[in-house]
From TrEMBL, chains A, B:
<dbReference type="GO" id="GO:0003677">
    <property type="term" value="F:DNA binding"/>
</dbReference>
<dbReference type="InterPro" id="IPR001845">
    <property type="entry name" value="HTH_ArsR_DNA-bd_dom"/>
</dbReference>
<dbReference type="InterPro" id="IPR036388">
    <property type="entry name" value="WH-like_DNA-bd_sf"/>
</dbReference>
<keyword id="KW-0804">Transcription</keyword>
<dbReference type="Pfam" id="PF01022">
    <property type="entry name" value="HTH_5"/>
</dbReference>
<dbReference type="GO" id="GO:0003700">
    <property type="term" value="F:DNA-binding transcription factor activity"/>
</dbReference>
<dbReference type="InterPro" id="IPR011991">
    <property type="entry name" value="ArsR-like_HTH"/>
</dbReference>
<keyword id="KW-0805">Transcription regulation</keyword>
<keyword id="KW-0238">DNA-binding</keyword>
<dbReference type="InterPro" id="IPR036390">
    <property type="entry name" value="WH_DNA-bd_sf"/>
</dbReference>
<dbReference type="InterPro" id="IPR051081">
    <property type="entry name" value="HTH_MetalResp_TranReg"/>
</dbReference>
<protein>
    <submittedName>
        <fullName>Winged helix-turn-helix transcriptional regulator</fullName>
    </submittedName>
</protein>
Length: 107, 107
DNA sequence: TTGACATATCGAATTAAATCGATATAAGAT
DNA sequence: ATCTTATATCGATTTAATTCGATATGTCAA
């Protein structure tokens, strides 16, 4: 996912739960108590939270949450890092900055 | 429409044609040759373009374009000014600035 | 190598968005 | 008053998004 696909990004942002996920991922430690509990101490996935922890918080089915996260990742809003059986998702600040800039300069 | 409804705004932005309309309205004189042709010289609706001129450019049905514009206006992205039988739409820069700021600070 | 857990994908059902043509409303001109 | 032109609204159809439960895949542990 290199170049900005504004349409996919705006579609991904057109949903309350997905907006919340992005917001929560600004402060993962605060919003996801169990954050990175599965990682050994020497490993850290900066800002990343696993699917299960997110699912618990949003209270939608596992498949829906997985779908949301993958869709946000495809749009470039999130990055995914796999560690063992877990997938950690974190914000992609580059895209977020670019889309704000896009609104200011292009739209 | 005072306070920012982010969801409605992102939904309004999730469409290529609507994105184009916003872009074109940055430079109405350039993008809409007949701009404000119906207005007497002493009246000016700064940056405004009437529905018919926009419709001609996007090549969708009159009802679809009218619906688009009204939806963008309800979201706060456009302002509508009626002059006689015409409705002139123009960008609402306040909302546009706010939504970019919202992405940078809230999301 | 079998079992348990985390996540992803599939297929189906429901709900929402896009889009049209037809019609209504509103203003201006005759 | 009537006709025309501009825009808005309505109702219907098609297409896309949401959401689920079931199942597949991948990883680790016993």
């Amino acid at each position: 996912m290199d170049n900005l696909n504004a349409l996919d990004i705006f579609k991904a942002l057109s949903n309350e739960t997905r907006l919340n996920i992005l917001k929560w991922l600004r402060e993962p430690e605060k919003n996801f108590p169990a954050q990175q509990a599965h990682l050994p101490k020497e490993v850290s996935i900066e800002g990343g939270v696993c699917v299960g922890d997110i699912q618990e918080k949003v209270n939608l089915s596992q498949s829906t949450v997985s779908h949301y996260l993958s869709l946000m990742q495809k749009a470039g809003l999130l990055e995914a890092v796999r560690y063992g059986q877990w997938t950690y998702y974190r914000r992609n600040e580059v895209t977020l900055a670019k889309i704000a800039q896009f609104i200011n300069e292009e739209i």
